[in-house]
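Late entry, written up from scratch paper. The run itself happened at the end of the previous shift, but nothing got recorded in the book at the time, so transcribing now.
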Amino acid sequence: MISTLFKKIIQNKTVLGTLLFLLLGIFTRFAFIDNPKEVVFDEFHFFHFVSEYEEGEYFFDIHPPLGKLVLWANAQMYGLPEFIHENQENKLTKETLELEQKNLKKQVVLLEKNEKSAQKIQKLAELKTQYENNKSKIEYLSTHIGGLSSIGIGKEYSETLNITGIRSVPAFFGAALVALMFYFAYFLTSSYAISTLIGMLTLFSPAFLVQSQYVLMDSILMFFIVLGGLFSLKYYKNPSWKNWIIVISTSAIVISIKWTGATLIGLSGIIWLVIIFQSKISFGKWISQFFAFWIFVPAFYMGTFALHFALLPNSGEGDVFHTPEFRANLENTSENINNKIIPKTFFLNTKYHPPLVTTEPLDFFLQKKINPYFDPIISEPQDYQKNEYILNWENWLFYGKFIELNRQMGERSAAIRDEHPFASRPSDWIHGKKSIYLWNKEGSAENLREPKGVIPEFWNNYIGGNFTKPNNFQGRYVQQLHLFTNSTLWSILPYSTLFLILLLFIFKIIKYFQKNEILEKKFNNYYMSYQIFIIIMILMNIVPFLLVERPQFLYHAFEGVLFGILGLGMALNSLYLFSDYVSKKYISNILWGITMFVTILLIIFFIIELPLIYGFPFHDSMAHTMFQLF
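Output as recorded:
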């Protein structure tokens, strides 16, 4: 049975090619995945969110929760609970040591004031030694508690965490994206040469590779947007329930990761409308598919928030973004505690001091004087009225929290105006400008590390070292990670998109003025429709960023670039329009020649930029050459 399956795979070039690109994607995305074992750029935020899920402390983020929930679920298997337990123990140890330090300091002060005998001098020295030891322990613990909120970018992960495992989910989806792009390109063009080129462009793209190696959710989002785009076009060709269910599922997933996933919902809606106008399915089936979409997608989206709220029952740093009604539903907030009769002085010098407490010297009631009595010694509980926040909130339950959180997400996202050194605009993306500096380490060979492993040693000895390493080299190495692009490719994509639009207009004009059956056969209606839908996805993923004022980053362009690469493949496929003048085999050979030439260039570029992609050490004399390339 296995041998039969293997033979079928070998005989099916599409399946074989997809599997080969999946293996290549796994190799490139999982290589050096544990390097560095330190916090890299936005891992600081996302791993912090993951830690908050484990501790149950409420946090706020401008994106829906599904991507963070996936990262949290994966981290459960790779040491996150143990890390949180270790973190809590470190907190207790630190508090104990701080109390001990106060006592030691008092003892030292007393001994220094009194007359000093030999015995007291010895005791004083012992106390000072113990004090210094405790001080160093407290300093160490201070950088190893509080989740990653107190650690920051560039700090080492705890040994309790299996960082390879935690980073594996984004890496897997990054690898699967490579195979998916190959398959999608073949679906669009039926050309193995073009689909191989598209697979290679995705495989060796430093931006897609680097972004998929760390605790980030972009690779998950990219995979499902492209998968949804593929099955949206399959649904257009064959409006079956199987294809529509996959479209529904991917739409629900992407909108629950980031709102930018709404572009897939937009494409699905356009195709769904086109299908009924072209009378491809019955009205009954069409309307049932409509209700299936608009019942499942919102239900799934809301379900991710229900799980989000269930995992975060306690007060946390996200409280400040919400109204008192929302905070009343979290444990240990002033609004929640206000449901109990507690003296105001209970809150003095604590982080739970309510912001709206009146300023009388003694006020037993927190927000409003609803219960005008206080008797610390009572025989039986007296009736009291609940705070109006609690009363109002009990009527809203989940829906009130869901609506407010989504409203806050939209408002906070729109209000972001802070400048960032790595922020960019769509005009920068066209030329691959504004790379993002993710991580850095530098120093001499003595205080950093020598390059280790076959590939780093090979690179430094045979690629970087032979023609750049000066004779007086003193062993200075740098380690850096950059999110950067292949600027030549990204510069071509706008022109290939414009070419597709022009080709589409030419085809429509010829078809309008003169029916050309040969031309229609070459570029059948399905192909031209696919071309329209790909153009729509490119524009929907890029144009919105032209209209917003908030800071944007290179990774905001990724979905548009992926569909742009597919559009480039369709533009190359237009060479078959000339099959009346040259043979299809000759055109195929030209396309294979282009594919081989570009692949060789991609590999050379990839090898030269290896240190910036994987973050292993290289000598600083090579840095200028690499930076010039991108």
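Residues 145-150, 341-375, 444-451, 465-473 have pLDDT under 50 and may be disordered.
(Scratch paper discarded after transcription.)
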